[in-house]
TrEMBL record:
Its main location: membrane. Subunits I and II form the functional core of the enzyme complex. Electrons originating in cytochrome c are transferred via heme a and Cu(A) to the binuclear center formed by heme a3 and Cu(B). GO terms for biological process: ATP synthesis coupled electron transport. The keyword Chaperone does not apply. This is cytochrome-c oxidase. Residues 145-272 form the Cytochrome oxidase subunit II copper A binding domain. Belongs to the cytochrome c oxidase subunit 2 family. Keywords: Copper, Electron transport, Membrane, Metal-binding, Respiratory chain, Translocase, Transmembrane, Transmembrane helix, Transport. PROSITE patterns: COX2 (PS00078), COX2_CUA (PS50857), COX2_TM (PS50999). Coiled coil: none annotated. SUPFAM superfamilies: Cupredoxins (SSF49503), Cytochrome c oxidase subunit II-like, transmembrane region (SSF81464). It is an enzyme of class 7 (translocase). It is found in: Membrane. The gene is coxB.
């Protein structure tokens, strides 16, 4: 009688633990999915409160905001999983700590727990994959009719920017361009709140077009390989640009500046260039500083660089 009663009690205890485990598993899955699905409503405020969780804040394009949200959401999901795992670890340590020499009840199968550690990782991977894929597709998306087209030509060790729109051709019919020299940091002028399609090509080796404030960079390849990407800059300002691919002796000096101005100023800049003004003169004509403000030429021997 005593043995049967003990067995019945043990069975009831196992069932009770199973129901508790099922509730924990269900609550854990529900909480995780809810947090990951709904966190997009306040990712900006959460990220700002915690300094972006290590991701640079202050992106100035539509793409940079989406990448920032993906990073913050991923960190929040990781923290949720971490808190759940840490909580279970400490609960087991406290609940099943050694109380004597007698071994506790050994449970061979626990369906709720098996369900938890099988389904929960799958949900985490599926949700992260979905948001990563959609963000990547958005970042790489190119519209059929962008507002502005710019060709980026990289070479040792400077940049040339050519404005490819039909209204940006000079008197000779050639595209207006700005080219950097050994003593001039080229300024790339772009309008805000307009879709800008960049075409990239290199004259010699692999370079990389990088504006840190865009939170984005794209390699520039030589030959017939042409990379392209599209952004919409949403904040006026002067933003430093760099080459992010080791390309030779003067790689560190391969700088440019992206100057984001209002669409009205951009049209006036293009009109001034069509009249024959240089880039510094055209910038001055629209009330902008003539030369780069975020970076200046590094001190080096210009003759040695030209000979290279």
């Amino acid at each position: 009688m005593f043995a049967r009663g003990s067995g019945a009690g043990s069975a009831r205890a196992r069932n009770r633990r199973g129901r508790v485990g099922a509730r924990v598993a269900g609550l854990g899955v529900t909480a995780l999915v809810a947090v990951m699905a709904l966190s997009g409503c306040s990712l900006g405020s959460v990220g700002s409160a915690f300094k972006g969780f290590g991701w640079p804040e202050g992106g100035v394009s539509d793409r940079s905001h989406r990448m920032y949200d993906l990073w913050v959401g991923s960190v929040i999901a990781a923290l949720v999983v971490g808190v759940l795992v840490w909580g279970l670890i400490f609960w087991c340590v406290i609940r099943y700590r050694k109380r004597g020499e007698e071994l506790p009840l050994q449970v061979r199968y626990n369906l709720p727990i098996e369900f938890l550690y099988t389904v929960l990782p799958f949900l985490v991977i599926a949700v992260l994959f979905y948001y990563t894929a959609t963000t990547q597709s958005y970042v790489d998306k190119i519209s059929k009719n962008p507002d502005v087209k710019v060709e980026v030509v990289a070479f040792k060790w400077n940049w040339q920017f050519r404005y490819l729109d039909a209204n940006a051709a000079g008197a000779d019919g050639q595209a207006i361009s700005t080219i950097g020299t050994s003593d001039y940091v080229p300024v790339l002028v772009v309008p805000t709140n307009k879709s800008i399609l960049f075409y990239e090509t290199s004259k010699d080796v692999i370079h990389s077009f990088w504006v840190p404030d865009l939170l984005f960079k794209r390699d520039v390849f030589p030959g017939n390989v042409e990379n392209k990407f599209q952004v919409t800059v949403d904040k006026e300002g002067s933003y430093v640009g760099r080459c992010a691919e080791l390309c030779g002796a003067y790689h560190s000096m391969m700088n440019f500046e992206m100057r984001a101005v209002t669409p009205e100023k951009y049209e006036r800049f293009i009109a001034a260039r069509k009249q024959g003004m240089s880039t510094p003169e055209a910038l001055q004509s629209i009330g902008e500083k003539a030369f780069a403000t975020t970076t200046t030429p590094f001190p080096y021997d210009q003759q040695q660089r030209a000979a290279s």
